[in-house]
């Protein structure tokens, strides 16, 4: 199978073919998503929330990102694998961002990094790309900025968002992720750049879509945002498997003779 690359994503945008992207944090899940033909797997820092159980994305460390990226990198044979720079690796000294990005490609077999920001991060994006690591920029709602923003909210400043995306593109970003903006604003951003735009809560007028896998399969408990959609209920399936096993063990039905030596 041919590997998805930053180049093939660009030609998908040029041909108006929708790009699909989902988060992945471990080997078995990444293998299933890769075999399903998802173009881009994201080892998102959302793992702090959906895997580690934190309230925000801030606590996950670079070493933990590397640990998960190794598993996903090992599993993906077709998808391009992008790894988030966790807070604050994408915001502090530029040399540290380059080192973190280099770790991703050297230690995990993954292909690119994503960092939150646009215009203010342009020099950093350029430095990382120059060092040899492709960068996806992330504009709009920036979860790592939650304490500065005072919560997760819809981003509506069209002029700023367009400027962020254009600055990221000019700095060499191969794609721009757009989170939680009105559909018309995402359309304007997409029109203002030539690289692929990947939306989450950004409507349909973008080059592709991304969602958090745990949300679409019913593995996140409690609140899920309006922009997600549940395509399966693995939470219920897992619960049913556990109670089925429990009942069989308690009732003496497991293991059977056939399951014993
Ligand atoms: O960490 C994450 O899951 C993300 C989303 C935008 C998908 O960055
Ligand atoms: Na993220």
TrEMBL record:
<feature type="binding site">
    <location>
        <position position="45"/>
    </location>
    <ligand>
        <name>Mg(2+)</name>
    </ligand>
</feature>
<protein>
    <recommendedName>
        <fullName>3-methyl-2-oxobutanoate hydroxymethyltransferase</fullName>
        <ecNumber>2.1.2.11</ecNumber>
    </recommendedName>
</protein>
<keyword id="KW-0808">Transferase</keyword>
<comment type="subunit">
    <text>Homodecamer; pentamer of dimers.</text>
</comment>
<dbReference type="InterPro" id="IPR015813">
    <property type="entry name" value="Pyrv/PenolPyrv_kinase-like_dom"/>
</dbReference>
<dbReference type="Pfam" id="PF02548">
    <property type="entry name" value="Pantoate_transf"/>
</dbReference>
<keyword id="KW-0460">Magnesium</keyword>
<dbReference type="GO" id="GO:0005737">
    <property type="term" value="C:cytoplasm"/>
</dbReference>
<dbReference type="GO" id="GO:0000287">
    <property type="term" value="F:magnesium ion binding"/>
</dbReference>
<keyword id="KW-0963">Cytoplasm</keyword>
<dbReference type="GO" id="GO:0032259">
    <property type="term" value="P:methylation"/>
</dbReference>
<feature type="binding site">
    <location>
        <position position="114"/>
    </location>
    <ligand>
        <name>3-methyl-2-oxobutanoate</name>
    </ligand>
</feature>
<feature type="binding site">
    <location>
        <position position="116"/>
    </location>
    <ligand>
        <name>Mg(2+)</name>
    </ligand>
</feature>
<keyword id="KW-0489">Methyltransferase</keyword>
<feature type="active site" description="Proton acceptor">
    <location>
        <position position="179"/>
    </location>
</feature>
<dbReference type="InterPro" id="IPR040442">
    <property type="entry name" value="Pyrv_kinase-like_dom_sf"/>
</dbReference>
<feature type="binding site">
    <location>
        <position position="84"/>
    </location>
    <ligand>
        <name>Mg(2+)</name>
    </ligand>
</feature>
<dbReference type="GO" id="GO:0008168">
    <property type="term" value="F:methyltransferase activity"/>
</dbReference>
<feature type="binding site">
    <location>
        <begin position="45"/>
        <end position="46"/>
    </location>
    <ligand>
        <name>3-methyl-2-oxobutanoate</name>
    </ligand>
</feature>
<keyword id="KW-0479">Metal-binding</keyword>
<dbReference type="GO" id="GO:0003864">
    <property type="term" value="F:3-methyl-2-oxobutanoate hydroxymethyltransferase activity"/>
</dbReference>
<comment type="similarity">
    <text>Belongs to the PanB family.</text>
</comment>
<comment type="pathway">
    <text>Cofactor biosynthesis; (R)-pantothenate biosynthesis; (R)-pantoate from 3-methyl-2-oxobutanoate: step 1/2.</text>
</comment>
<comment type="function">
    <text>Catalyzes the reversible reaction in which hydroxymethyl group from 5,10-methylenetetrahydrofolate is transferred onto alpha-ketoisovalerate to form ketopantoate.</text>
</comment>
<keyword id="KW-0566">Pantothenate biosynthesis</keyword>
<feature type="binding site">
    <location>
        <position position="84"/>
    </location>
    <ligand>
        <name>3-methyl-2-oxobutanoate</name>
    </ligand>
</feature>
<dbReference type="GO" id="GO:0015940">
    <property type="term" value="P:pantothenate biosynthetic process"/>
</dbReference>
<dbReference type="InterPro" id="IPR003700">
    <property type="entry name" value="Pantoate_hydroxy_MeTrfase"/>
</dbReference>
């Amino acid at each position: 199978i041919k590997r998805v690359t930053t180049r093939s994503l660009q030609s998908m945008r040029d041909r108006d073919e929708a790009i699909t992207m989902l988060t992945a944090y471990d080997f078995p899940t990444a293998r299933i998503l890769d075999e399903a033909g998802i173009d881009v797997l994201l080892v998102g820092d959302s793992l702090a929330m959906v895997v580690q159980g934190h309230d925000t994305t801030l606590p996950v460390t670079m070493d933990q990102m590397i640990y998960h990226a190794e598993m996903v990198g090992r599993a993906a044979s077709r998808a391009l694998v992008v790894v988030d720079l966790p807070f604050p690796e994408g915001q502090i000294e530029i040399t540290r961002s380059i080192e973190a990005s280099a770790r991703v490609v050297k230690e995990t077999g993954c292909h690119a990094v994503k960092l939150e920001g646009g215009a203010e991060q342009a020099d950093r994006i350029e430095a990382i790309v120059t060092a040899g690591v492709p960068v996806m920029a992330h504009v709009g709602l920036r979860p790592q900025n939650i304490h500065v923003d005072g919560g997760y909210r819809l981003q509506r400043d069209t002029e700023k968002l367009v400027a962020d995306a254009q600055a990221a593109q000019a700095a060499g970003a191969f794609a721009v992720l757009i989170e939680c903006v009105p559909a018309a604003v995402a359309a304007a951003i997409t029109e203002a750049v030539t690289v692929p735009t990947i939306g989450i809560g950004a409507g349909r007028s973008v080059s592709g879509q991304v969602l958090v896998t745990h949300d679409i399969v019913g593995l996140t408990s409690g609140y899920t945002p309006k922009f997600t959609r549940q395509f399966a209920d693995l939470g219920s399936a897992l619960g049913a498997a556990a109670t089925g096993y429990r009942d069989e063990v308690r009732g003496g039905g497991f293991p059977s003779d056939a399951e014993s030596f």
